[in-house]
From TrEMBL:
It comes from the Bacteria. Keywords: Membrane, Transmembrane, Transmembrane helix. This is Permease prefix domain 1-containing protein. InterPro entries: Perm_prefix_1. The chain crosses the membrane at residues 91-110, 122-143, 172-189, 209-232, 239-263, 283-304.
Length: 326
């Protein structure tokens, strides 16, 4: 004898439930399905048609079973979604850039060429991003499924302070001043030089970097000025601006670290100043480490600062939208 659609539906539903729920759910479904079918038959429908329509309205047995068991059908529900998303963004802003710079710097110390440095740093960064996304998400999935409580709740104390428009103007002016000083320093170093020994000018940067390497550096400074202008015009940070800022910071880091690894960054006259007492190579190595570490710290700080500001601006926008909605 062929099993009815109703019996097949009920069996499919209870098979996804704990054994102790089988009898109660079966009895409830048998009664509710029979009543719904009978109501349709009384309205003139054929039994087979009525049965199919009732079961179709009930939907997927797995979904119905999840409702009976109060089991979520999502990785992370609305209760923890915002906490997960905010934590994930914060970790992705901080950890991957740090890994990129540390791995690149370690390759510099190991004497690797520029190809090895970038390859190792990029691979390590991508791997870090995947690990951060996976482990953070897995942690919240476990918390969601186990019914744990993070003890995190929103309160009015979380509301951000209003942004002062004058602060944005001050940042814009400071950025332009800094960029102007950088350009002036480049020109002065190559024309007048900051170091003079016995009346002779000693340039810090290698004059052979002109024109193409220096033009690329000047181009990056111009892009920084354009970025500062766009940031000021739009009135604040967002995640797109933070991403562009990260790319610019990584471009500056790559420019300096590439020339540093190749030994092409400093002028020969400047490096000769470090060759006293027959320890030329050790002194140059120390100089490269100090300079590279300084560039790495500045790049990481700039990237993190941009993402932090973007996150604060996003929270402020969400609060304003919430206030307007109420």
């Amino acid at each position: 004898m062929k099993t009815s659609l109703s019996e097949r539906y009920i069996t499919a539903t209870i098979n996804e439930l704990p054994a102790e729920m089988h009898d109660d759910v079966r009895a409830e479904l048998e009664a509710s399905i029979a009543d719904a079918i009978m109501a349709r038959i009384e309205q003139g429908e054929v039994r087979e048609t009525a049965e199919r329509a009732v079961l179709t309205e009930l939907g997927d047995p797995s979904l119905l079973a999840a409702n009976y068991a109060d089991r979520p059908l999502h990785l992370i529900g609305p209760r923890y979604y915002l906490t997960w998303w905010r934590l994930l963004k914060r970790l992705l802003v901080i950890i991957p850039p740090i890994v990129f710079v540390i791995v690149a710097f370690a390759q510099v110390l190991a004497g690797g060429n520029i190809g090895d440095i970038l390859a190792e740093a990029i691979v390590a960064t991508i791997s870090t991003i995947l690990h951060v996304c996976f482990w953070v998400t897995l942690t919240f999935v476990i918390i969601e499924r186990s019914g744990g409580d993070l003890g995190i709740s929103w309160s009015v104390d979380n509301l951000p302070e209003p942004q002062d428009a004058r602060r944005g103007k001050g940042d814009f002016i400071a950025s332009l001043v800094f960029i102007g000083l950088m350009l002036a320093a480049l020109i002065w170093d190559q024309t007048r030089a900051f170091i003079r020994i016995e009346g002779e000018s000693v340039a810090v940067l290698n004059p052979e970097l002109w024109p193409w390497a220096m033009i690329s550096l000047i181009g990056l400074l111009v892009l920084e000025a354009i970025f500062a202008l766009v940031l000021y015009t739009r009135g604040g940070w967002n995640f797109l601006m933070a991403a562009v800022n990260t790319l610019l910071s990584m471009a500056f880091f790559s420019w300096f670290i590439t020339l540093l690894v190749r030994g092409e960054l400093f002028s020969e006259q400047f490096t000769n100043l470090w060759s006293d007492n027959g320890v030329h190579e050790d002194n140059l190595y120390t100089l490269a480490v100090i300079f590279g570490f300084g560039i790495a710290v500045i790049s990481i700080w700039d990237m993190i600062d941009g993402w932090v500001r973007a996150t604060r601006s996003n929270r402020s926008a969400e609060s304003k939208c919430g206030a307007l909605a109420t």
